């Protein structure tokens, strides 16, 4: 398994999806094909593409943050048009792919959309704010409990201090002396 999994990706985190896709080349020559078969790997933040599944170095990669994924039947006119999807981001390069089947194309799009939703809903608000809230909750709950406890004792029953002293004498360790 270690030989099949590209090493740079192993170092960057969990692989969420991988497999062969055809990637439309940005500049295809007269001799080269417009669509090139690539081993594609998606982890939590980055989309990598390799010459094949045994390649150690990616042919390219990009952060999927701010990208959106959608099925794109307009990319091809042949029988594989329902297998196409694209990754787009305003101001950045659009990546176009053809999956082995329409179901695979949908799965890639679903995985990427899920990841993007996860990134936008969890990483930005939770990392910083949750830590602050935890500290604030601890501080505020202690001070609120202590101050409300003191005010209840002192304001509602001013003579409670004398009774409190009596109560403290009847602690389990000192009960035998009272009897």
From TrEMBL:
Q: Which PROSITE patterns match?
A: PH_DOMAIN
Q: Which Gene3D superfamilies match?
A: Pleckstrin-homology domain (PH domain)/Phosphotyrosine-binding domain (PTB)
Name the UniProt key words of this record, in alphabetical order: Cell membrane, Cytoplasm, Membrane, Nucleus, Phosphoprotein
PH domain location: 14-117
Principal location listed in the UniProt entry: membrane
What domain of life is recorded for the organism? Answer: Eukaryota
**Pfam families per UniProt:** PH
Positions of the UniProt region annotated as Disordered: 132-163
InterPro entries per the UniProt record, alphabetical: PH-like_dom_sf (IPR011993), PH_domain (IPR001849), SKAP_fam (IPR037781)
Q: Which CDD domains match?
A: PH_Skap1 (cd13380)
Localization in the cell: Cell membrane; Cytoplasm; Nucleus
**GO cellular component annotations of the record:** cytoplasm; nucleus; plasma membrane
Q: What is this protein called?
A: SKAP1 protein
Organism (species)? Chordeiles acutipennis
